[in-house]
Amino acid sequence: MAGLKTIIALSFVLAIGFLLVILSAALYKQYLTLLVVATYVVAPLPNFICGRAANQDDFMESSGSGLVDFGRFLTGFLVVMGIALPALLAHCALIQYPAMVMAIIGGLLIYGTIISFTMFFQETEEF
């Protein structure tokens, strides 16, 4: 059971992640790094949607696993894109390398916090 300390700690880490991404855009006046926030906020959605849309049957474990795997693939793609996009922008000289590092670290903190929130506050099903 997650308590108040868990919520406060995760909120603090989320705020640090957003601060790093916003500072990477504001300090270097290159606002393309804000795309990382959108990428990491959208990243858990395919996994959630495909997990809910899969047919959960008690008798057949393999039913709907293709849809779940597709959701995991899209989530993985978006997480890798959140790391690769700032690297690509820095390589093309559209942003500076310190902005790239700040955007990647901030984005990973944001995504890690979102995943931690879902893990700590996931409801268990009882039959």
UniProtKB/TrEMBL annotation:
The chain crosses the membrane at residues 6-27, 34-54, 74-94, 101-121. It comes from the Eukaryota. It is a multi-pass membrane protein. It holds the Pfam family Vps55. One of its GO terms (cellular component) is Vps55/Vps68 complex. Keywords: Membrane, Transmembrane, Transmembrane helix. InterPro entries: Vps55/LEPROT (IPR007262). Belongs to the OB-RGRP/VPS55 family. This is Vacuolar protein sorting 55. It comes from Aulographum hederae CBS 113979.
